[in-house]
Design goal:
Elements: E1 11-16, E2 19-23, E3 31-33, H1 37-42, H2 57-66
Antiparallel strand pairs: 1-2, 2-3
């Protein structure tokens, strides 16, 4: 078995509804995750009632894979 070279320590706090705030390694400020547009619609969330619209976790995954 190979030696573990990195463990990502992430803290995630759910604020309200789909809004989550994460503390990520390498980031000096917390990162907000939520839903927007078609993602909110898919989950049946009324966008007009959404307190904060942010990128969804899938948006970050796609961006990471594209880089």
């Amino acid at each position: 078995m190979a030696e573990v070279v990195y463990v990502s320590n992430v803290k995630i706090e759910r604020k309200s509804g789909p809004l989550r705030v994460a503390e990520l390694p390498g980031e000096s400020q917390p990162v907000s995750f939520s839903v927007h547009g078609a993602i909110a619609k898919h989950y049946g969330i009324d966008i007009s009632r959404l307190k904060e619209s942010h990128a969804a976790t899938i948006d970050y995954v796609v961006a990471a894979l594209g880089g």
